[in-house]
Amino acid sequence: MSFERSRGEYAKQISKFEEVNGTLIILKATFGTKEKYIDVTEKLNSMIKDGSIELHPDIKIFGDPAPGERKELNVIYSNRGKIEQKILAEGGGGYLILNLPMEENMAKMEEIRKKA
Question: What's the N-to-C CA distance of the chain in angstroms?
Answer without folding.
Answer: 30
